[in-house]
Write a structure and sequence with these properties.
alpha/beta; Aminopeptidase; 7-stranded mixed β-sheet; two-stranded antiparallel ribbon; disordered C terminus
Length: 286
């Protein structure tokens, strides 16, 4: 079901309550946004989870819906709450309780891209922020909520794998004390957003492929995990962060020879999660 700002690819034959999503791989940079920014298009893409949607593209063929955003993260961050507005960027926003994401410029309308580089020369009118939320944020989350509800109704449970990528430099910075730097970070908000058996099964897939896995450090899961993860109601959400250097050159933003391997790993993960989210017995007809 293509739309202006995201794609929802539904399988011909849904097999389980699994869902795969990529909210940060959008690369539809509007000309007006490029003109308003002081950064060149290549630098704007430094916040993008480039090609993550391609890594999980086999989901519909395996009976699993795939939700992939077109909206660039630098324009609207779909993994932030709609009220995480930055008063340093947007006119008319009152300073509320301290929010480290907003303070650092990474609110729902980001002020900076990776490396803390400012996107704009000045501030934006609040009407611009509201327009972006109305056109991009709300439709994506409406679609995600509807998909979660329909999957849980059809199969009795749902497992959302929210797929992201992380700069290798960020891993080096945050994980220096670890014996081995993680290739993958799983975020389940320390067990609050996912059934522990689900997180463990996902971890086992990556580890069996020779990848180092960390849980919740340095990324425990952001708004999507917090908002939609309800394991007590048979609705698990796990945020998966992949080291970008595993599959692409981070300077050129071009996939390298590792892409095929990581896509195979992610395709296996899709199949495993689909199996986890199958109903244990046929659901009674309504």
């Amino acid at each position: 079901m293509p739309t202006t700002h995201f794609d929802l690819f539904l399988p011909d034959k849904p097999l389980s309550g699994a869902i795969f999503a990529s909210p940060h791989s959008g690369r539809s940079y509007a000309e007006a946004f490029l003109e308003a920014s002081v950064l060149d298009p290549h630098t704007l893409r430094s916040s993008e989870d480039a090609y993550v949607d391609k890594l999980i593209a086999e989901a519909p063929a395996l009976g699993v819906p795939l939700l992939a955003a077109h909206t660039p993260r630098a324009y609207v961050d779909l993994n932030r709450a709609a009220d995480e507005l930055d008063p340093a960027l947007i006119h008319g926003v009152r300073r509320l309780a301290h929010n480290p994401r907003v303070t650092s410029g990474l609110g729902v309308i980001p002020r900076v891209v990776a490396g803390g580089r400012a996107i704009y020369r000045g501030r934006l009118p609040i009407e611009e922020a509201q327009s972006r939320l109305s056109e991009h944020w709300h439709p994506y989350h409406d679609a995600l909520q509807a998909l979660l509800s329909s999957q849980r109704q059809a199969f009795g449970r749902t497992i959302l794998i929210d797929c992201h990528s992380m700069p290798h430099e960020a891993i080096e910075h945050h994980c220096m004390s670890m014996d081995r730097l993680p290739d993958v970070v799983l975020g389940d908000r320390f067990g609050a957003s996912s059934d522990p058996d689900v997180t463990a099964a996902i971890e086992a897939v990556f580890e069996s492929e020779g990848l180092a896995v960390a849980r919740n450090t340095p990324f425990a899961g952001a708004y999507i995990s917090q908002r939609y993860g309800r394991p007590s109601s048979s609705q698990s959400v796990v945020q998966v962060e992949l080291d970008r250097s595993l599959y692409m050159d981070e300077r050129s933003l071009v996939p390298h020879e590792g892409f095929a391997r990581i896509k195979r790993v992610m395709t296996r993960l899709i199949a495993e999660v689909a199996e986890l989210a199958r109903p244990q017995m046929p659901l009674a007809a309504e």
